[in-house]
UniProtKB/TrEMBL annotation:
GO terms for biological process: xylan catabolic process. This is Xylosidase/arabinosidase. The record marks D146 as: Important for catalytic activity, responsible for pKa modulation of the active site Glu and correct orientation of both the proton donor and substrate. It comes from Blautia luti. Gene3D superfamilies: Galactose-binding domain-like, Glycosyl hydrolase domain, family 43. It holds the Pfam family Glyco_hydro_43. The keyword Hydrolase applies. Keywords: Carbohydrate metabolism, Glycosidase, Hydrolase, Polysaccharide degradation, Xylan degradation. Belongs to the glycosyl hydrolase 43 family. Transmembrane segments: none annotated. The keyword Hydrolase applies.
Amino acid sequence: MKTKQAFNPYLPSYEYIPDAEPHIVDGRIYIYGSHDLFNGLNFCLGDYVCWSAPVDDLGNWKYEGCIYKREQDPAAPRIRLTNGLAAPDMVQGPDGRFYLYYFMGGTKMISVAVCDKPAGHYEFYGYVHYKDNTPIGKKGEPFQFDPAIFMDDDGKLYLYTGFALQGNPILLDGSKPTEHGPMCFELDPSDMLTVKKGPGYIGVAGEKESKGTPYEGHAFLEASSMRKFNGTYYFIYSSLNSHELCYAVSDYPTGGFQYGGILVSNGDIGLPGVNDVNHAKNSTGNTHGSLIEINGKYYIFYHRHSNRKQSSRQACAEEIQFKNGKFYQAEMTSCGLNRSPLNGIGHYPSYIACNVYGKKGTRFLSMLKHPKAGHPYLTQKGGDRESGEDQYVAHMCDGAVAGYKYFDLSETKEICINICGNASGTVYIRNRENEKPVAEIPVKASGKRKGFSTKLAGLGKKEALFFCYEGKGFFDFHSFDLK
């Protein structure tokens, strides 16, 4: 069976799904995440949607539709802008039904919806609660956030939640962040809602407790997720650095977790030569995701940022190396789930860039758009929508770089870039950063999209392509063709 090439982001470019939790059901991988709006004023303003793909064809994603609407929750606050549907997680219960655990801003509670199918229309089910029916979060506990739900092999059910900030401030709803890292509740699998034990802390350090330990510099912030491989428990979380997913390891699901390392950074920070947000390979922001094994290979799911702000996030994934129980930080790539370099012959949209930065470097994004000056960035035309891909790399100005990894260029003879703008200069093509160009393309101003070509030959089976512009003005980079 011929499969489609997979790219990053792996969903269509008009889709903004951050916080994705991957789960496999009957040979398909399903993605459960938040739903940003393009150019949204805040995070998670859309209703939950679901996408899925066959495990043997990870480039063939299917839109499963809207699976749950915010107003289905009886406690939904009237104002959506500051009270969106945050990162969910899903588990199949002993009754065969599928349970979606989520947090909605303004409620303090962890809500649950249920469905007979992994991507059907979920119905509100209830709130996770103590035996006296008081919802967790209503007894003065630390802030409940980003629920992770995990069913162990022995049938025990665990819920992980938590949120931490430096200095432990009071939050807008009056809650306090956790000082001791993520919390764990054991739930009764007979109803999937009632707390049997907890909350307890699992040993993943918060800021204060991290000092002098391997967690220092990578203390827990948010984005709990639990996985089990070869009998060992792996707790995935976003650190206080926010741009990175880290993990901790234990022989038990409820405690004893030891720091394992970085899984991925949405700026490649932590890889050789990349030490801080100013020198990251992309403008950075928060991230959330998890690990999964597919056909003997391991993948880390995370998200990237676009449109010069934090609230237009897109789903990405990378193969990650796993040896002797340890994961090694994955590099951001354009080929992500493809399992091999992309074909050296074909048409490629520019938005699959895994590295986008300017002469001024990069920055950690806020909820307000950062200035264009000196910075290329990913964006699309028009507003939020559910069809019509046209995302591209905008504002390729002097010193701007758009990088792509990796391609099999052993048979490639020519490359054409499709651009428009008032640029006048040269695009230098490198197969390694900061090294001598392997080709160059003079470009001129054009009010309409226009192709500029050059010969390209003598490269290998796994090569990067860095398009580096030097000149006056700027252009919008829409796509390129390898011939």
